Amino acid sequence: MPTDSIDSTKDESSPGSVAEGASPNKGQAQVDYLMQTPWYRWYALGVLVLVYCSSHVDRQIMGILLEPIKLELGATDTQMGFLIGLTFAIFYATLGMPIAMLADRTNRRNIIAIATTIWSGMTVLCAYVGSYGQLAMARIGVGIGEAGSSPPSHSMISDLFPQRQRATAMGIFAMGINIGLLIAYLGGGWMSEHWGWRVTFIVVGLPGILIALLVRFTLIEPPRGASEAAKQDRTEAPGLAEVWKTMLRTRATRHVVFGSALAGFVGYGMTLWLPAFFVRSHGLSQSETGLTLALMAGVVGGIGTFTAGRLADHLAKRDPRWLAWIVAVGKGGLVPFLVGFFWVAELQSALLLYLIPAFFGGFYLAPTFAMVQQLVPVQMRSVAAAICLFLLNIIGMGLGPQGVGILSDVFSAAFGNESLRYSLMVFSLVNIWCAVHYFLAAKTLVQDTQRVTDSQSVPAGSG
Fold first, then answer.
1. Using CA atoms, how far apart are residues 436 and 396, in angstroms rounded to an integer?
2. 206-211 mean pLDDT
3. Cβ neighbours of residue 122 under 8 Å, at least 6 residues apart?
């Protein structure tokens, strides 16, 4: 792998990049050496994937545990939708922006390590709650911890990989979602059935502590803008309002961000309610549900998420607009299959139809993460990622599961135990709206990306 795409320019705004106890020159020499070593960037990406995987295990475990928790606590679907949606999303999304502002100014590695420790500890605490209110507070704690992970990770990956490889790297990173779902569904289903939901929380929470130590003591803080082809003007990180204005002024960014929010609206609604759907409508046990969704969301979905990143990078060499087109085609094309999946009553036929939505469901992740990073200046990247994730999670994680639960309760009078089936079927149609925004983003993607590059390029010989 070529290494000339990474500039080892010292980033004096990143004090954590110098190892504690070492002289600045020695510490910087270590950073320069690792940044020019091909294996290190892939190792760092692998560790960040572990972090992302841990966050999604702890986040999505609520889906597989929803039914036993609901029965023990005596909650309604609307209450459970609030528990798995808004209680987590409000704090996760809103705190993500101030933490991202801190990440654009200080050591991103340390922020990720601290965040991982917090959400893992709060997941373990979920095992010891005695009421619905206490569980809601513990899940808020998980959301607070997870707020500090993704934006700094996106920023670090963008400094480790040049634009031509960034969608692939983001695709590998995004696979942490699918791996997390596989572990949450497969392990969570079995543990819930055999050990109970309380022990399950403990088992999935503890490994995050070890991952936090791996981040803190084996990763370095990469220089900001190190992977850019053109030398960048290293200005101070701007305030939150300026980043918002920059993103709102850019047409492609507006469509990408809102399109991703709609994708999350459907995706989180499906992910967190599908286990209950399989139990209620198809009569599967917790273990059977976990195995089914692990294979679909974890294996098939993981292959799709990785494929999206690789395919986007490959097609973008011919036409950069494929970064957006590939999402539009995937999200629009899966709708008939997803509606069919909910319509068909026979399990085997339904699962065959679901293979397509499972593969294309996460197609938006890698291209979206890559486009957001290339559509803003380097000093805005953490905050831009946080803003994108804020809208994705407030609309997606916050309103998606809540909306499915409310609609299910509304439909219960007409459809009884099958109300969840029809609620999810209605939600699947939102994918068409999502696809439209990515088609519109493609129209100005090239011009908007070039505008950012031109605004930051430093003339040769200057600086």
1. 17
2. 93
3. 138, 139, 141, 142, 144, 145, 205
**pTM, rounded to two decimals:** 0.69
Q: Which of 85, 143, 154, 150 is nearest to 119 (CA)?
A: 143
Q: Which residues, in sequence order, are bridge partners of residue 232?
A: 457
pLDDT score for 236:
64
CA dihedral 326, 332, 333, 338 (to 10 degrees): 130
Rounded distance, CA 297 to CA 177, Å? 9
CA 34, 39, 43, 44 dihedral sign is positive
Q: Which residue, among 384, 202, 182, has the nearest Cα to 294 in the 3D structure?
A: 182
301, 359 contact by CB (below 8 A): yes
Kindly report the number of other CB atoms within 10 A of residue 174's CB atom. 26
Q: Could you give the CA distance from residue 383 to residue 376 in angstroms, rounded to a whole number?
A: 10
**What pLDDT score does 235 carry?**
54
Non-local (6+) Cβ contacts of 59 within 8 A are 88, 142, 146, 180
pLDDT at position 225: 61
DSSP codes of every residue in 412-456: HHHHGGGHHHHHHHHHHTHHHHHHHHHHHHHHHHHHHHHHHHHHH
pLDDT at 439 over 50: yes
Quote the Cα angle for 422-280-272, to 5°.
Answer: 70
Q: What mean pLDDT is reported for the chain?
A: 82
Residue 405 in contact with residue 77, Cβ under 8 Å? yes
Domains of the chain in start order, with CATH, are 41-456 (1.20.1250.20)
Average confidence (pLDDT) over 138-165:
84
Higher pLDDT, 38 or 107: 107
The answer to whether residues 271 and 357 touch, using CB atoms and an 8 Å cutoff, is no
Q: Judge whether residue 232 has pLDDT over 70.
A: no
pLDDT digits (tens, 9 = 90+) for 329-354: 999 999 999 999 999 999 999 999 99
Q: If DSSP codes are grouped into helix, strand and coil, which group holds residue 51?
A: helix
